[in-house]
Amino acid sequence: MSIIAENLTYIYMPGTPFERAALRDINLKIDEGEFVGIIGHTGSGKSTLIQHFNGLLKPTEGRVVINGMDTTGKELKELRRLVGIVFQYPEHQLFEETVYKDIAFGLRKQDLTEEEAREEILKAVEVVGLNEDILEKSPFELSGGQKRRVAIAGVLVMKPSILILDEPTAGLDPRGRDEIFGFITRIHKEMGITVILVSHSMEDIARLVDRVIVMNEGTIEMDGRIEEVFADIGRLESIGLSAPQVAYLMKRLKTICPGINEKVYTVSAARDELLKHLKGKGA
Amino acid sequence: MINTSITIGQYIPGDSIIHRADPRTKILLSIAFMVVIFLVNSFWTFTAMALFVLLTVIISGVPVKYTLRGLKPIMFIIIFTAVINIFTTGGTPISQTVPFKYITWEGIILALRLAIRLALIIISGSLLTFTTTPILLTDGIEKLLSPFRKIGLPAHELAMMMSIALRFIPTLLEETDKIMKAQAARGADFDTGNLIQRAKSFVPVLVPLFVSAFRRADELATAMEARCYRGGTGRTRLRSLEFTDADVRIAVVTFIFFTGLLLLEYL
Q: Which structural domain, as residue segments, surrounds residue A260?
């Protein structure tokens, strides 16, 4: 299950005074089972790019191929089942009378019996860490964090092979955020789902993903492993981004004790590195 | 997805004499235009009116193609009324054979006139919103309606309602687009099926849209109260409307043009 974009260009509202190139000549390949982060300034084209991956937007030029299917082709339904997108604030898309019915919405177009559907829904609810007894409640009486999980369950229930999340933890408290990232990491590992995470938080990106794509003004500015991308702080800052805070701390510490390796980008890796260094000194 | 076809109500920034004119001038002249377009009848006066609209569009600097795009959503109404007119107007049939004997020359001419009138009204109306920011537009309406306050017309409240409505058109369109995409990503299908199925397929869009509209209304009300909004009485403006040279020039030219046309038509 791979994503390939070739010379992808997208023009927003062509033929009007508001015409603007949102994406310019994007070339990209994401392989099966990868956990990819996309970062970039507001308006850098992140959201436009991910909407090409399930055919919501069609390329103005170039093409996008998902698992051998061109997104302009006929298999749109199948494509949208394979590629699940969780948009920003997905709780705003809830509409049914009960949580159960809302999660079941994506399954309606599939040929499943009542029992099979129920089984899938229960599984999805369990994955996102919700209790079964909310299934018969109205989605509008849940808390913000619960609503968001219901919305994510509504995407997971279709068993996508590629899961794309646009700022899935925006506006949540730290605990809610950790829980959501917890089950995203789990399904990535256990089911081998390709996950693409769009985020503004460098900390989250550094902690979770293997590979980062940096977008700037509709083009791919950088694309590589965490260590490669965050090592070039100057370049990230020149396009209005930054490295994780702990990277700045390690850089400063390096001026005091030159022996440490400053190329760590998560708090836990920094802790390990410092402990190693301190022990080495003590011995 | 959808917001590219609806152009009316959108403001296009610019610095033409039409952009700079007072909103009251533009509103009054637009109304005058609508009256005149229903008073003229002959081929030449129609041509003159069309050229007049074209000229105003060119002066305003708004792309001509873009103003024509505003006609798309009402094309159906124009064609529908034109067809009704063609078949229901009495007069000389264009031929004696069966389908054609119901069509009269008078009907065709009436239909054409009506279609041109509707098209010109839409273009001139959208030109008003293209060249005037929603805030100026409602300020202008409020000023124009304020004499009627004496007979109990809530001019300020009406204007405030209008400006809020105008302000939220793009927001709600964007929201609709977002929700439609989110539901499409979950397998919703808006394009196939019969009329009832299609209407039903919009439930997943309309429910969240209403929920969010109510939420936004709530937030807006709180924000307005937090800034001590108390209605129109005693309220002053940051920018008060003033007529300038530009208004005088536009008004005089348009007035001479309209009077000339009406004289030609009726003398």
A: 244-283
Regions of chain A short of the pLDDT cut 50: none
Which of B7, B184, B208 is the closest to A94 by Cβ?
B208
Number of domains in chain A: 2
Which tokens hold the place of B229?
């909004």
DSSP for residue B93: B
* A248 interface with B at CB cutoff 8 Å: no
pLDDT digits (tens, 9 = 90+) for A62-93: 999 998 889 988 888 889 989 999 999 999 99
Phi, psi dihedrals of residue A165, rounded to the nearest 5°? -125, 125
* ipTM of predicted complex: 0.85
Identify the three-state secondary structure at position A143. coil
Who among B65, B66, B208 is closest to A92 (CB)? B208
CB B202 within 8 A of CB B190: yes
- Does B208 contact A at CB distance below 8 Å? yes
| Residue A239 belongs to a domain | no
Together in a domain, A254 and A219: no
Q: Residues B120-146: what's their mean pLDDT? A: 89
Q: Which amino acid is at A12?
A: Y
Contact B208 A95 (CB under 8 A): yes
Q: How many CB atoms lie within 10 A of CB B203?
A: 13
Q: Is A70 helix (H, G, I), strand (E, B) or coil?
A: strand
Could you give the CA distance from residue A27 to residue A42 in angstroms, rounded to a whole number?
21
The answer on A269 and A138 residing in a single domain is no
